[in-house]
Amino acid sequence: MERRMFKSGKILMACAALLFAAYSQAGVPSAQAAQLKRVPTEKVCMINNEFMSKKLIPVEVDGKTYYGCCQACYSMLKNDAKARRAVDPVSGKQVDKATAVIGSLPNGKVFYFENESSFTSYQKAHGS
Left, alpha or beta for 63 (phi > 0: left; psi -120 to 50: alpha)? Predict the structure, then answer.
């Protein structure tokens, strides 16, 4: 019986470690996930995926506006369609960064959501 409990404890610890690793790899420390706030699109560098305190360089592509913080970001957004897309962390769907609802953590890291409902679901799931 005692040996079985020890084995169960080891399995539980391994599962917890895997969950922690997966959560950490997602780049969302638990204390910060609870502080996700919606931010204006024009203050997000869509290449670095970071919220910045100033308006950035607008990049017009196919009638949509993306934002970058420097000339290199401008060029990437202008020329690379993949750079203009992200994955919604709730639905797993690809979203266009120009039309996404964007949330930022206190450290500036941003997430792109397909709609307000997805953004709200993320906040609720992470204690915001």
Answer: left
- Give residue for tokens 């950490």: 24
Same domain, 17 and 42: no
With beta carbons less than 8 A apart as the criterion, state whether 59 and 77 touch. yes
Give rounded-to-5 percent helix, strand, coil for the chain. 40, 25, 35
Region 52-65 average pLDDT: 96
pLDDT of residue 10: 52
Residues 12 and 39 in one domain: no
- Please indicate, yes or no, whether residues 12 and 48 belong to a single structural domain of this protein: no
Dist CA 92 CA 114 (whole Å): 9
Q: How many domains does the chain have?
A: 2
CB 53 within 8 A of CB 43: yes
Q: What's the N-to-C CA distance of the chain in angstroms?
A: 42
